[in-house]
Structures are given as C-alpha cells and as structure tokens.
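Below is a complete specimen:
___
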Amino acid sequence: MNAPGRPKRESSLGEEGAQRLEGTANAPGRPKRESSLGEEGAQRLEGTASTPTIQNVRVRRVGIPLNRPYWSMISTLHALDTLVAEVRLEDGGIGYGEAAIVNGYTSETLEEGWRFCRQQAAGLPGLAVRDAILRLAPHRHEQSHGVSCLVTAMEMAARHPLLEPIAAERRIPVVGGVQAHDAQGLLSEVERLISLGYRTLKMKVGGDVRTDLRNVRLAHELAQGRAILRLDANQGFTPDDACRFAAQLPPEGIELFEQGSTAGDWQAAIAIRASSTVPTMLDESIFDLSDIDRAAELGAAPLIKLKLVKCGGIEALVESLAHIRRLGMDTVLGNGVASDINNWMEACVAHAHVERTGEMNGFTRLETGLLTEPLAIEQGCLVIPAGYYPTVDADILDRYTIEAKSFG
C-alpha cells in the first residue's frame, strides 16, 4: 500500500549502503561536514572474507505506557506500541533496533510491520550482516519501519562506528514539547520548559486556524528572547487553512512550520511555502531519496524532517542527510514517538551530522525506558556520557513484551 505521492521505486539502500557498515568515525563535536558516502567508505568491507554472521534474531511487539497522553492531529497516544529486534552474531555481537509505527503517519500499519519483521527475521540467521541488509533493501520503500528495526539491530551488533563510545561527553540540543492548549496551561508549560533549559519549543497545531494562531502568539510572547518556537501541523490543516495560518505567523522567533497539509500534496506544500512568513518543513511527505529529490525540484520546502525509522538504517540515514545537503536544503532529525534505543541512535548520528536542534525526545514520554543506564536530559540537551554504550534491561523488556518470536 502506498501513501499519496509515494510511487514505487528501487530502494536507495543498495549495495553501497550495505557495504558501508564500518562507516566513518567522527571526532567529538558537531561539525558541519560533507557526505561520508565516498568510494572509500563504500569499498571498506570489500576484500574481507565476510562481515559477521547472524546467529539468532528475536523480534518483539512491545507496549510501554506513556507518562501522559501525547496529542497530535494524527492521534492521541497513551502508550508506545513498538517493534523491537534483537540480533546476536556468531562473533558475540549483540544489537537492538526499535521502530514505532503510528497508524496515520505512514502507509504502514503496526500489524503489517509486525508480520513483516517476523517473516524477514526467519530468513536472517546464517547470513552475513552485509548480505542480510542487502536482502532487506528492496522492502525499504514499503516497509521502512520494519526494515529500520531489523537493520539498526544488525548495525549495532556489528558495532557501527557512529554508535561507538567516545572519550568526550556528547550534548545534543533537543526540543521541549508544548502540549497545553489553553492560556493558563501555555503559561505554565512554556515557563517550565524554559526553566529546564530548553531553547526550542515545539507546538502542535493543525486544528482551528484562529485558535492555533491565538495559542502560538501567546507562546511566542511568553518565550520571546528566551526560546524559539517550532510548529507542527501533522497534515492537520486543509491547504487553504494552512496558507492562512502560515501567512499570519510572527516572522521572528518561529524557526519553522512543519507539514501544514496532506502528505503527497506537493502543490499544497508549494503554496504553503509561498504564503508562509517562516521557513517550512516536510515530514510525512518524505520517506526516501525520491521524495527528497521531488521536494528540491519543486521548491516545496527548504527543510526536511528525517527519522531513523523512515530511512531503513543508520547508513541510509547518513546517506539521506548528505543528499539533502547536496541539494541545498537543511534537516531536522529525531523521533518524538520512540524509545530510548531509537533516540540514542538518532542522537549519535545527530552529534556527527546535524546542526539543528533535534527531536529525539520520545523516550522522555515513557513510563520507563528500556536501557539499564537511562538517557538523561540536562539543560535542554540529551546527554550521552563519555564512554557510554547502552545495554538493554532484559527484565523491563520482558515485562512490556506483548508477543515475541525467535529464529536461529
């Protein structure tokens, strides 16, 4: 099943991406850099006998309650219903991948993703990691979340260099989520988030234009000079309403307006950008390189939102980030509906490749995380301590597992 505007195409996660498992290590800091997808990286594994062989794959459907309901124009979530893969290699490597499928965000459904993971996991034991990634590559367009869940587990098990611990602490600025919709609630929430050190506040919009504008202006006034706003409609507006809303936004103090109308309606995206007083960004419209190319060709938005679950793996995410830069656009990275497994991976990539404040804060919405040493937010930054490498708490994972299957 295809979402509007997403024609079938060959996956961009081809042999080049699969052969770059050893990647390119980055020094501490967050430099803006050119793509690492050169011939040297693509050929790094060539000439070796094999990449590590997969011994066992265990896939789970996991449900973790949220600490408060999470509202958007797509749905109101009360729990993170997500897919988790565990891959064990014959050389002793262990890795985890995670992908939450929110019905309405993508053409994929949770049931389809769970079925896909079970079916594909059954054929992975005995394969070299590189070959397993190549086997999954053709499914990336239609099953990006399931592919990402399995591939990232393999990439972690094979010790992808972007995930490796480094000697320095890493601090990745993230957004603070504003969920209030009334004046008193906005006053309280904006002040609380700023006091916690957040300098970018994300607000959900996409309902009634007048009400949303009133709330945005109030939050804008409260945050002025202390934090900037990031607005996300999650496709909620009609094209006309999105244009009306975007045209009336204060031009200063608002970083961007995200996905004003329906994914795949490229003419609407163009019109919204033309009407908007602030830069616009596409999220649900973007799932692979062809979508990025189309956004650039049409001038549909200057900013692209990426999530690891949409890209089909860490290498494919790095490729997409580089591709966006080559086309003269900019990127926001991060998933607000994810566990600490996924958000940690996104933070590692963001530290090396992304300048803008990230959105890898889904783990903060959970009743409990899945990692033995929890991730922390300090002064509006996700903190990865020096030398940090996560381990999954097996007891917690078992407690929240709804269903599981093992292969190998």
Remarks:
- Residues 7 and 294 are 11 Å apart (CA to CA).
- The mean pLDDT is 89.
- The longest strand covers residues 54-71.
- The chain has 14 helices and 14 strands.
